[in-house]
């Protein structure tokens, strides 16, 4: 069955390759996939898995390069300046397109104006977790305490998924929570474990082990479905609490190329990601990272980013979130 699936994928990609114009065959040499966050995280591991699959299918190496900093902007700028020939790609958290343009007040860089979105490449869940000695065990407990006491929450940084999720949560309930930004999920989690902050919306794949060990208390999942790594923990919308019945916050990863990259190359990479996600081996890797194998066409990706951008622009402006 695996051989049949692989052959079908190769045939589909081969047809796209054959359908390309009379320009030089693609790819003729190595392809660079830039990851705009540090090595070792879920995004980096996902990129290396996709690169491995694509390299075997295209019969050319796909090299992953990490260029992190400025909430992903450094790596994105690097790709935007590259030739629009399909040899330099970006794999990023989708906030590079849906949040950064509104958070960086003085920036002259808007990825939506200089990059072509190819496909969403997986989504991830977050959970609202608290330090174990905060004295709450349910979402209702947390909300009640937040109305009586000044609570702090950690995130991976200003404009990060955890910051935005808690901002929308606080806006929905008019809660006066204090944000403590960190430089990444790891230090945010570390200080939560050390009881230097009270709570946080953090990536489930990074905190599940501490929940299992009883070192963090899980209250709810941010997305539309419960998470298999946190059995028995409800979604926020599923909590039944007033004001939260439509709460559904999700983030994902997006593959992009410099604006002007030929549409057939974009279509090729969209199909490559879809075929990679159909691979049983890669699906197991994604499961271990608590990533969901979401895939979209270039048109669907543009529509999704535009919709999410409209939503987050309103949240950011209401909260006054800015990085000068």
From TrEMBL:
PANTHER family: BLR1237 PROTEIN, TRICARBOXYLATE-BINDING PROTEIN. Residues 1-24 form the signal peptide. Belongs to the UPF0065 (bug) family. CDD domains: PBP2_Bug_TTT. Transmembrane segments: none annotated. Keywords: Signal. SUPFAM superfamilies: Periplasmic binding protein-like II (SSF53850). This is Tripartite tricarboxylate transporter substrate binding protein.
